[in-house]
Design goal:
Order of helices and strands: EHEHEHEEEHEHEHHEHEH
Distance between the termini: 8 Å
Number of helices: 9
Shape: globular
Mean pLDDT: 96
Radius of gyration: 17 Å
Bound molecules: 2-phosphoglycolic acid
């Protein structure tokens, strides 16, 4: 299986020109790599301008309806026609959290609805799961299990062919995180994730479902996650905003497989 390397640009860069400059060197390298599928998830407003050639694109979230009176929202079919083939859902930055005394973001129920809608509308879903804190008693595994079971409820087995899981422990995400997870711990988590999925749709499908690692991935730790950690790919945040660092990660992934 090809390694899937996904860039999550989040709220960057500020102009379409910078977006083109950022994607151009990546596009040139990605086209030559045989063992890597490269996906860039820019802000949705850049999708149409960037999505051409052999590079694949994705969106970072979507609204849970196709069309209607929903001011300011973007539905999955719009994203698809804008050039997105992948869709990140359940990212910790879009999940429900307390903000200014109010809950903002998606609950598992909303994520499940979006996952089903996106899969029905030709998008490949990258579902992010992960715990806030790593405790020593394995309680965090219950959080991952609950997220998977709720977010993947009523998804048919054949739809799993278009589903990718990204394990992203929250404490490892972002430029200010102290450290990434370790390849050994990721390996453990990915086996656990497959076990939960196998209870939902059977072992065969669970083994086929790619599990990516995300959280402070860079060119120094990428190889460890891909080899020792046996990750099927990586979800790269801040390191993907430096095209040369991201290209290094792509080349490392191409060398590992
Ligand atoms: P990071 O972000 O690589 O900056 O930690 C990863 C993500 O949030 O998807």
């Amino acid at each position: 299986m090809k390694k899937l390397i996904v860039a999550n640009w989040k709220l960057n860069p500020e102009t379409p020109r910078e977006a083109r400059e950022l994607s151009a060197p990546i596009r040139r390298v990605a086209a030559k790599l045989k063992k890597v599928t490269t996906v860039i998830c820019p802000p949705a407003v850049y999708l149409q301008g960037l999505s051409s050639g052999r590079l694949l694109f994705g969106a970072q979230d979507c609204f849970g309806e196709i069309s209607g009176a929903f001011t300011g929202k973007l539905g999955p079919t719009m994203l698809y026609h804008g050039g997105a083939r992948y869709l990140i859902l359940g990212h910790s930055e879009t999940r429900a959290r307390l903000s200014g005394g109010q809950v903002a973001g998606d609950t598992d129920l909303m994520i499940n609805h979006k996952v089903r809608l996106a899969l029905k509308n030709k998008l490949k879903v990258i579902l992010c799961v992960g715990e806030h804190e790593r405790d020593h008693h394995g309680e965090y595994l219950k959080i991952i299990k609950a997220q998977l079971e709720a977010d993947l409820k009523n998804i048919q087995r054949k739809q799993f062919d278009n589903l990718i899981i990204a394990y992203e422990p929250l404490w490892a995400i972002g430029a200010s995180a102290k450290a990434a997870d370790t390849p050994e711990a990721f390996h453990h988590q990915s086996l656990f994730i497959r076990k939960v999925i196998s209870r939902l749709v059977g072992k065969e499908q669970a083994m086929k479902t790619p599990v990516l690692y995300g959280g402070s991935v860079n060119s120094k730790n990428a190889a460890g996650f891909l080899t020792e950690g046996e990750a099927d790919g990586l979800l790269v945040g801040h390191a993907s905003l430096n095209p040369f660092e991201f290209i290094k990660i792509l080349k490392i992934a191409d060398d590992q497989t």
